[in-house]
Design brief:
Layout: H1 14-27, E1 39-40, E2 44-47, E3 50-54, H2 67-80, H3 95-108, E4 112-116, H4 119-130, E5 135-140, H5 145-153, E6 157-161, H6 166-175, E7 181-187, H7 199-208, E8 212-216, H8 231-235, E9 241-245, E10 255-259, H9 262-271, H10 273-276, H11 283-297, H12 300-317, E11 323-324, E12 331-335, H13 339-351, E13 354-355, E14 358-359, E15 370-374, H14 381-391
Parallel strand pairs: 3-13, 5-6, 5-7, 7-8, 8-9
Antiparallel strand pairs: 1-2, 2-3, 4-10, 9-10, 11-12, 12-15, 14-15
Helix pairs in contact: 2-11, 3-11, 4-5, 12-14
Bound molecules: pyridoxal-5'-phosphate.
Residues 118-120, 123, 144, 146, 187, 191, 216, 218, 245, 247, 255 line the site of pyridoxal-5'-phosphate.
């Protein structure tokens, strides 16, 4: 079996190591590249002067182009400029930052929220700040890279349970009671598979074993639950740590950590290096996020349109013999064992005016290369029908 980690960490001198890794990745068809697009929105993407229907965006509600959000941003730039020019611990924490933290805490029913520049930063911050040598993080196998890499760099122990498998989690809990603290980590909606975590069952196990729960709701916030407040609304429970991002359904950038205990928020403010040593979100971004959150709550009609589009895709794809991961969310992944097949599909899609991306290891487990289709509220019926027509050829 190919060890993907080996492809990254060999003990050659740097230049020959880089060359070996890159050559190997090309051989295995998992070489990563970026394409410089002209622009995109929740329905269309322009690349080399040609427009494509965009099925690769996390802009599920289309808010990144909402005129009110754009004008909040523009108006604030005129007043505050484009940067806070400092960390929040110096002069980068404004009244608007504070008000947004309060608004988020009230919305989600927590005593405290702390803003971060990105979801990646927020996940790194919480793990690297609280996990010590005799702590154990018990993470779902598909938990996001930002969490896993933070645990790997921490002095704590990482254990992983089979994806969404409560018995596997229970087994690990049985054997880890010697640790000082245990943190169970999962995602509300999984970023690559689109399925949802069994939060209620996880919480029961956590309570029974005196463990904490952290939920990364990057793909649930804005979409799931009443007025889009996220996956924890459905479970009717507040995990000790909730991470939300503004980079998906909210259509802006940035993130927040919601803390069930005020002292945890205080501790993060004292010790989280990602917070202390990084320039904060600009006030213009804060204004855009603030407006986006208000609009998100009033956007049941967009969530309804999104659900209709997801349903159209799912009922169409049922008739095709493809391996679709069961999911009721905007993320619909079709697995192909052969990476070459995925790459061919992406190429063919471009000819049909459809933009798809191949997701390959090590982003996803070996032999699970896939097309990760993301449906948005902005897609029209014929966009989805054209995608289904294309997929019927494979
Ligand atoms: C589950 C999950 N958590 C965190 C992140 C990181 O969020 P951001 O893009 O805001 O850094 C992502 C984005 O890829 C994600 O899918």
């Amino acid at each position: 079996m190919i060890n993907i980690m080996m492809l990254r960490y060999n003990n050659y001198n740097w230049l020959s190591k880089f060359k070996k890794v890159i050559t190997k990745r090309k051989e295995l068809l998992i070489y990563r590249y970026r394409q410089s697009i002209t622009n995109s929105n929740a329905r269309l993407i322009t690349f080399l002067n040609k427009k494509y229907i965009n099925f690769s965006s996390n802009n599920y509600l289309g808010l990144s182009n909402h005129p009110h959000i754009i004008s909040s941003y523009q108006n604030e730039i005129k007043v505050s400029g484009v940067s806070t020019s400092s960390s929040g611990h110096i002069i980068g924490y404004s009244i608007k930052h504070k008000m947004l933290e309060k608004k988020l805490a009230n919305l989600l029913g927590y005593p405290n929220a702390i803003l971060f520049n990105s979801g990646f930063d927020a996940n790194q911050a919480i793990i690297s700040t609280i996990i010590s040598k005799n702590d154990c993080v018990i993470a779902d196998r598909l938990t996001h890279a930002s969490i896993i890499s933070a645990v790997m760099q921490s002095p704590g122990t990482l254990k992983r349970f089979r994806h969404n498998d409560i018995l596997s989690l229970a087994k690990i809990l049985e054997t880890t009671n010697k640790f000082d603290n245990r943190l169970i980590v999962t995602e509300g909606v999984f970023s690559m598979d689109g399925d949802q975590a069994p939060l209620q069952d996880i919480i029961i196990r956590a309570k029974a074993t005196n463990s904490w729960v952290m939920i990364d709701d990057a793909h649930g916030f804005g979409i799931i639950g009443r007025n889009g407040i996220g996956s924890t609304y459905l479970s009717n429970y507040k995990p000790e740590i909730l991470v939300i991002t503004f980079s998906k359904a909210i259509g802006v950038n940035g993130a927040a950590i919601l803390c069930k205990y005020k002292i945890l928020a205080d501790y993060l403010i004292q010790c989280a290096r990602q917070l202390i040593y990084s320039t904060s979100l600009s006030i213009a971004q804060i204004s855009a996020i603030d407006t986006a959150i208000t609009i998100m709550q009033d956007s049941n009609y967009l969530r309804k349109r999104l659900r209709r589009n997801i349903q159209r895709f799912k009922s169409g794809i049922k008739k095709l013999k493809l391996q679709l991961i069961p999911s009721n969310t905007a993320i619909q992944s079709i697995i192909f064992n052969d990476t070459r097949h995925v790459i061919n599909l992406v190429r063919k899609a471009r000819k049909y005016g459809i933009w798809l991306n191949a997701i390959r290891p090590p982003t996803v487990p070996l032999f699970s290369s896939r097309i990760r289709v993301t449906i948005t509220a902005m897609h029209r019926k014929h966009d989805i029908d054209n995608l289904l027509k294309l997929l019927s050829l494979f």
